[in-house]
Design brief:
Low-confidence stretches: 151-158
Radius of gyration: 17 Å
Number of strands: 4
Strand order of the largest sheet: 1-2-3-4
Oligomer: single chain
Strand content: 5-15%
């Protein structure tokens, strides 16, 4: 039996439960975190991530919120990743906040063993690269979160 045949493929929901457990326990140095967006989402598709801006970069002192969406093909296919917080970064569409797979090799060259944690850690490392670390960031006061196109806008009635 070859090593290919001996590999056990963990079903999608078990994999996502493992990721949820790891995210809830806290990871690494605490500068990235993630969890489910909606506890009632039985398909475990919608996730929220957070990256604390790395020291000695234009991102320092800021907290960046992201949305990750794991479609039915996850983990065979990568999740879609979108910054909720406005950010100026080479691999992020400035209008939509979407991390462009063609500009972020981890998504283009996705492998089943990659996780949402790996994406967040890699994005944080990307913030520290020479072509991103000094990019001017949107001014304070423009940090309002982007509207989620999949959810109706929240409003209140007076």
């Amino acid at each position: 039996m070859s090593s290919e045949e001996a590999k056990v493929v963990v079903p999608r929901n078990f994999r996502l439960l493992e990721e949820l457990e790891r995210g809830e326990k806290g990871i690494g140095d605490g500068t990235v975190s993630y969890g489910m967006d909606d506890a009632d989402d039985i398909y475990m598709q919608s996730w929220t991530g957070t990256i604390l801006g790395p020291h000695n970069t234009a991102f320092e002192g800021k907290i960046f919120q992201l949305k990750l969406f794991c479609g039915k093909e996850y983990p065979e296919s990568p999740p879609s990743v979108r910054f909720q917080t406005r950010i100026n970064m080479a691999c992020v569409n400035p209008e939509t906040g979407v991390v462009e797979p063609s500009l972020f090799p981890m998504l283009t060259n996705w492998r089943r063993e990659y996780t949402m944690e790996d994406i967040l850690v890699k994005l944080k490392k990307e913030m520290m690269t020479s072509h991103n670390r000094k990019l001017a960031q949107p001014p304070e006061g423009t940090e309002e979160a982007r509207a989620d196109p999949k959810r109706p806008a929240k409003c209140c009635v007076m």
